[in-house]
Amino acid sequence: MQACDASILLDDTATFTGEKTALPNVNSVRGYEVIDAINSAHTIGQSRCFLFRTRIYNETNINPTLAPSRQQTWAGGDDNLAPLDFLTRNVFDNIYFTNLVNQRGLLHSDQQLFSNGSTDAQVIAYVPNPASFMVDFARAMVKLGNLGVLTCSNGHMRANYTRVNGS
Question: What are the extents of the domains in the chain?
Fold first, then answer.
């Protein structure tokens, strides 16, 4: 296995004890249910209501107009979809960062990028400067492409992310 191989997602078996239940990870690594949800349904630019329900009902760092409008969406059920970006739904742009500054990040994990932390300055920098965001995004994609993903017989993709293939 290599670093960042998602081995923390592996479930324990009769012959294998994984990282998920290892003492240092107990009570520190969370969100497996979100990974399950992401793995089960691909909804580009949208989120299923159960993924943002806690945010719209319980969090205080949310725009007062966002919560009621999303609560109406959720009223129809956990599988209803809501757009992550209400202004430019089908455009790849920097409005995402404007939404965060205005406390309109739909997902808790997104809004954490702008919550009096170390990433606030970067979020603020992208709001008036879409070109800067696009340049940084392109550089990040090049770096990601240079990671040297294992292919063919050198690597494999898990059929079920909670188990090693063949088990």
Answer: 7-154
pLDDT (tens digit per residue) in 49-86: 888 888 888 999 999 998 888 888 777 788 888 888 88
Question: Reduced to 3 states, what is the DSSP secondary structure of residue 81?
Answer: strand
DSSP letters for 54-96: HHHHH-SSS-TTHHHHHHHHHTT-TT-EEES-SSSTT--SSHH
- What are the backbone dihedrals phi and psi of residue 81, each rounded to the nearest 5 degrees, phi first? -110, 145
Query: 88 among the known binding-site residues?
Result: yes
42 is annotated as contributing to ligand binding: yes
The predicted pLDDT at position 104 comes to: 95
CA–CA dist 71, 95 (Å, integer) = 22
Tens of pLDDT along 19-42? 777 666 666 666 655 555 554 455
Does the annotation place 21 within a ligand binding site? no
Q: Coil, strand or helix: which one is 83?
A: strand
Q: Is 7-154 assigned to CATH 1.10.420.10?
A: yes
* 127-148 residue pLDDT tens: 999 999 999 999 999 998 888 7
Amino acid at 91: V
Place of tokens 């992310």: 161
Residue 85 is labelled as binding a ligand: yes
